[in-house]
Specification:
alpha+beta; six-stranded mixed barrel; six-stranded mixed β-barrel; 24 helices; 23 strands
Length: 849
Amino acid sequence: MTQSIKHKVARWPMAFKLLAREWRSGDLNLLFTALLLAVMTVALTGFIADRLQRGMEQQAAQLMGGDLVLRSPREIDAQWLQEARDRGLQAVPTLEFASMVAGDNGFQLSAVKAVASGYPLKGGLELEKDSRAQSQDVSADYVDSDGRLPASGEVWVDRRLLTALNAAIGGEVEIGQKLFTITRIIHKEPDRSGGFMSLNPRSLINFSDVAETGVVQPGSRVRFRYMFAGDLPSIDAFKDWLEPQLKPSHRLLDIREDRPSVGSALDRAQRYLQLASIGAVILSGVAVAMAAGRFARRRQDTVAVMASFGFAAPVMGGIYLRLLLLLGIAAALCGALLGFILQMIGTSMVADLLPVHLPPAGWQPWGLSVGTGILLLMGFAGAPLRQLRNVSPLRVFRRDLELASPSTVMVYGLALFALVVMIYWYSADARLTLWLTLGLVAVMGLSAVLTLGLFRLLKLVGPKLPMRPRLAVRSLYSHKQTALPQVMAFGLVLMVVALVALIRNDLLASWQQQLPQTAPNYFAINIQPFERQDFAARLDQAAVKRSPLYPIVRGRLSGINGQPARDAVPDNAKEDNALHRELNLTWRSDLPEDNQIISGRWWRDDFTAQPGAIIPLSLEAGMAERLNLGLGDTLSFDLAGQIVTGEVTNIRQVNWDNFQPNFYVIAPPGVLENMPQTLLASFFLSDEQRRIVPDLVKAFPAVSLLDISQILAQVRQILVQVTLAIEVMLGFTLLSGLVLLLAAVKNSLDERLREGALYRTLGASGAMIRSIQRYEFVLLGVVAGLLALMGSELTAYLLYLNLFDLDYSLSFTHWLVLPLSGAVIITLAGLWGTRFVVRQPPLQVLRAG
């Protein structure tokens, strides 16, 4: 009992001594390097991804003025604001309403926003630098408000309102019952919403002046927006506290809900960053497994000798596992520190190229990288080293006693468990974990079966080949236990890199398609039917790229299936915005370009409305889901006092990210043309074409022109940062793939050294050996390329369908590139990694073996 306890106590000191001895011998170099590079890559990608993600979210938060926004049709409980402040958050209210603004020379409907001290919490309120300028020059310089807001009795207006009123700085205007003095001209509001209220000219007043205007009364149609800002944990905690108390009329928005075009880009980018990080971890884990397997094979003699001196193999196995843990902790700490230093150097070198300043990383990447290192070691390297417990002391006399292969359940079970834990740990997304794990398991299983099948095929055709290819094929088949994991590792490298590159290309293409350089930067609303031809002609004469002029009929949803609309919808939808405002209805004979029918059928091009017949209607999918509407439901709309009823015949998926006119409800032609209507158009103006704006305003004074250039610029800035993050992650995935390539080559180095020594003993030249190796690596590369092709296409299909919401199509370029690039890359890496085979003296190799 005493001796057993001493052995137990002595294991840790012996593990330290053995670690120092093994380190000096150089045999731990490959395992330590693989683990160090794995953790360094994880840390590097983790720090950069964390900083880029924080930067993207901070930049995106500037589009809504805060980290979190609560929208309400009425004032909220003051206790909610106090709770936010008690949690260390900043809280600022704003109030928006529509009102006529009257001046000496006319009046104009304006979207009035009342703001309180502290507005905006994120982003900047930009004003025209020369506030007394009467020029229409849109290239004037702008300055930040630096926290200044309109004083009581002052109003800040945008250039459109100033022009419409024919007013000037210092002039007086009336809003409701209060007189205001125009003191500044607004250029950009960070939180300007995209609703039709925002299409009106803008004016900004002090929150304390709202009561004196007399405009806002009980029952008035207003919109309160409460902005909150603070650190992410406090925001999340406040959000969790607030959500159970919200009523159906409240909407709690983050950037993904408030700006869907930005939110969808952020969601896709976040999934991509997670996927790329996971890909790097998988490659690093396989590299660690191969390095650990080679280390375990080379330690058999040491364990056998120690076992012959009384140290049982299980004792030595336990000591080596402790050695492994010490090595893992050292490599994890060094790798995390090295990754942190490298990301600091890298980001400082490209700081001038970044669209915004990157905030510091949080503590999570430290824990993630160190924890990943330990988990990688135990999951991917634990099984090979545990087999040292089974080494027999007889190996001292019989070198032919090989180490028993680890059980399949142990090796793949531990690795799969570690893989699932890491994927979920990285993503916190059960769907991503499920589909990526299923994809990898299916790909690796099919790869093993196909690889063995290809090896058998090569064995059949091998005797018919010339001598050197024949010897290469024979070498592969005779060492298939080593060649199988090697070709699967090569295939995994190519598959992960190809998958990450493929998704990167498709994501960037989708964003470029969503927001091309000529995306509409102006909207024109309130175009009267008699102005239609003249307005279109003005744009066409200036060679302006424009959309068609869409007719709009304003109507309120009054009934559903013969019942009042509010009574027919679920309780959680009774306060939906679609039931409390007028909707924009239009008519078309063809399906809009970026719309997709998901249920039902579009009407025929030659559709003709019959008197008294039910009108077919096309409904947007989000509205249908919120109001629990489906095919066959009848909808009644109050159009200027006239009730029009239609039946839902199809439901459309609308792309709200494209900055094009989109509609919730569309009818066929011949139904709504006799209703009071206006027209809507979007168009793109280059810097040179913007000179026509003053002419348009003068020629069509009733038409409202909305300049969304600033919103587009902010969205593009976020996409630039997202693109940079994607490029960086792709680069580090390539680095992880290179580490695995070298580990896979080193894994078979001992066998290749012995085989090379035998060839040279039998008279083969170094050139012949290199030629045989070249044929062998080319075969491995082609097979790995074919496996990568199959795996990347299958996994991409699953991810596109279930996570990225992208259209999948076969990438025929990969069909040619992957096998060829696999052959070239793996041949070059293999020849470089085995360059010592022909340099070692055969006698020295055979004596050591």
